[in-house]
UniProtKB/TrEMBL annotation:
Belongs to the cytidylate kinase family. Type 1 subfamily. It comes from the Bacteria. It is found in: Cytoplasm. This is Cytidylate kinase. The gene is cmk. One of its GO terms (biological process) is nucleobase-containing small molecule interconversion. Residues 5-223 form the Cytidylate kinase domain. CDD domains: CMPK (cd02020). The keyword Kinase applies.
């Protein structure tokens, strides 16, 4: 079995959903690196920091007590995220954090700290790690590398459906589909510099595949590695 499985791809491609299912099927640890960048972005916003100050944000990432652990509450969460003991699991999913996270993640000082932490997590053994640069930068020696993708429209459709489900159709805070699509497109652009599909990654176009089909496709690649 491949010990380390890297799953990269743009927002809404299905990395977290598929990554978690796959990890559970294989009995592997699951690590969503996006949550780490989101937690730092949330903390920076919470403290009213200048999002363009890479040195200060790098220091924040280094000193922040961010803990990602198994979910203790059954409210649809994949994991619990705390910062200095405060539960921010859902706070890191807001549009405000979504709009700030690429700027925060764009600073080399922040990436250096989080990449080091991600490698330490992966060194513990069998893991499914999802993000943007896992196969290329974080774990270039990963035994299996996948790059999930889908059209912008499909990824925005999934994100919007997820928000309707979570917030309720009539919630005044629910953004429109067009706004969600603009946010996804903007994040694609902002993430371009740090979005590095590994040259040896297997590309899985999920546009016309449901979650089960994506999982089955990936499981075939896992079996080929056995
Ligand atoms: N192949 C798929 N078909 C339909 N919906 C999907 C598929 N993959 C994921 N989803 C749904 O799309 C949303 C975004 O998926 P997610 O795993 O959060 O993407 P990512 O982690 O790549 O941003 C979730 O609500 C998820 O249930
Ligand atoms: N390995 C990673 C993971 C996330 N990120 C950044 O963190 C943001 C949030 O990642 P995410 O995986 O939670 O985003 P979604 O794809 O789930 O919307 C991305 O848009 C990137 O800016 C990164 O730079 N490198």
């Amino acid at each position: 079995m491949p010990g380390r499985i890297a799953i990269d791809g743009p927002a809404g491609a299905g990395k977290s959903t598929v990554g978690e299912h796959l990890a559970r099927r294989l009995g592997y640890l699951y690590c969503d690196t996006g949550a780490m960048y989101r937690a730092v972005a949330w903390l920076a916003l919470h403290r009213g920091m200048d999002l363009n100050n890479g040195a200060a944000l790098g220091e924040l990432a280094e000193k922040a007590d961010i803990v990602i652990s198994k979910p203790q509450i059954a409210d649809g969460r994949q994991y619990t995220v705390t910062v200095h003991g405060r539960d921010i699991t859902w706070d890191i999913r807001t549009s405000q954090v979504g709009r700030a996270v690429s700027t925060v993640a764009g600073h080399p000082e922040v990436r250096r700290v989080l990449i080091q932490q991600q490698r330490a997590i992966a060194s513990k053994g069998q893991i499914v790690m999802v993000g943007r640069d896992i196969g290329s930068i974080v774990l270039p020696d990963a035994e299996l590398k996948l790059y999930l993708t889908a059209s912008l429209h499909e990824r925005a459709r999934r994100r919007y459906a997820e928000m309707v489900e979570r917030m309720g159709e009539h919630n005044p805070a629910l953004p429109s589909f067009e706004e969600v699509m603009q946010d996804v497109e903007k994040r694609d652009q902002d993430d371009q510099a740090n979005m590095r599909p590994a040259p040896d990654a297997i590309i899985v176009d999920t546009d016309h595949l449901n979650i089960e089909q994506v999982l089955d496709t990936i499981c075939q690649y896992v079996e080929e590695k056995v």
